[in-house]
Write a structure and sequence with these properties.
Layout: E1 9-11, E2 14-16, H1 20-36, H2 40-49, H3 55-72, H4 76-83
Antiparallel strand pairs: 1-2
Helix pairs in contact: 1-2, 1-3, 2-3
């Protein structure tokens, strides 16, 4: 983006600068969230950077990456538990949950 628009993007008379570091942080948060299957990585990255303008794109990227990763593979922590053959509580199917 910064290569295509070196001076930024003009919208409604305001020039919005493109910061490659923001894209890097959002990509890192999405990758970490996908590997661990957690959304809290977005909050952690947001707290580390302190950029309030990045919170919405970061949350969207982490949630989308998490949705894709959950369909493809178990989380890193579940994989370690399975490799070490440790006892764990299996996930229950929705039909087994009883509401009172």
């Amino acid at each position: 983006m910064a290569t295509l628009f070196p001076n930024g993007i003009l919208f409604d008379g305001i020039v919005y600068r493109i910061l490659p570091g923001g894209y890097a942080v959002i990509g890192a948060a999405a990758m970490t969230g996908a590997v661990t299957h957690t959304v809290s990585t977005a909050v952690i990255c947001f707290e580390l950077t302190g950029q309030i303008s990045h919170i919405l794109p970061m949350m969207v990227a982490v949630i989308l990456a998490n949705m894709v990763a959950q369909g493809l593979q178990p989380s890193l922590y579940d994989s370690i538990i399975q490799v070490k053959k440790l006892p764990y509580l299996p996930e229950l199917a929705l039909g087994h949950i009883r509401y009172t």
